[in-house]
Amino acid sequence: MESLQVQHYMNHYPVTFSPDMVVQEASLRFLKTKQIGGPVIDSNNQLVGFLSENDVLSKMLDSIYHNKHFAYVSEMMRKDVLTVKPYDSVIELGQTMLLNKPKVYPVVDDDGNLLGTICRNDVLRAIDKHIRSGETADKLSHKSTA
Q1: pTM here?
Q2: Coil, strand or helix: which one is 114?
Q3: Residue 146 to residue 135: CA distance in whole angstroms
Q4: Which of 89, 137, 98, 87 has the alpha carbon at shortest distance from 120?
Q5: Phi and psi of 85, rounded to 5°?
Q6: CB neighbour list of residue 14: distance below 8 Å, 6 or more residues apart
Q7: pLDDT tens sequence across 39-68
């Protein structure tokens, strides 16, 4: 099952944010990269949260109504972030994605350092690639026990 590890399908260069970034800068990053969410990291590349387009949109709409145009990523980000390891199974992640809301998962090493992200589209691409190559669940299961 080695070929179906997260590390082979993850985005190594995701959009990232810092906790002290203002909402307008975060919005520009989303607009430039067309990504739907990204990890919030500290100066040591440690994952401290996750920011989605929805979080930014909500804050920007709120700022229009309340005429408050200044907010930090740290005020908007989610702190309880579901993460995966580079050696995790793409198949198991796909099953997890069916049960949980996040569409993008930060990939971290055993020390909590950000390595990249993996999204539903990456998982779909990985599974599609293996189906097209003729590898069925039986063959993949046999590989992991050999």
Answers
A1: 0.82
A2: strand
A3: 15
A4: 98
A5: -100, 155
A6: 35, 38, 39, 104, 106, 116, 117
A7: 999 999 999 999 999 999 888 887 776 666
Q: What are phi and psi of 45, to 5 degrees?
A: 65, 20
With tokens 């082979």, the residue in question is: 8
List beta partners, residue 84. 107
Given the structure tokens 């599974």, which residue do they identify? 127
Q: What would the two tokens of residue 1 be?
A: 């099952």
According to the model, what pLDDT value does residue 50 have? 97
What pLDDT is attached to residue 59? 85
Burial of residue 45, with CB atoms counted within 10 A of its CB: 0-12 exposed, 13-18 middle, 19 or more buried? middle
**8 A C-beta contact, residue 83 and residue 107:** yes
Tokens 């990249």 belong to residue: 116
User: What is the spatial distance between Cα 130 and Cα 44, in angstroms, rounded to a whole number?
Assistant: 36
More confident residue, 143 or 78: 78
Residues 68, 20: Cα–Cα separation, whole Å: 17
Print burial letters for 78-94: b (CB count within 10 Å at least 16), e (below 16): eeebebbebebbbbebb
Angstrom distance (rounded) from CA 25 to CA 16: 11
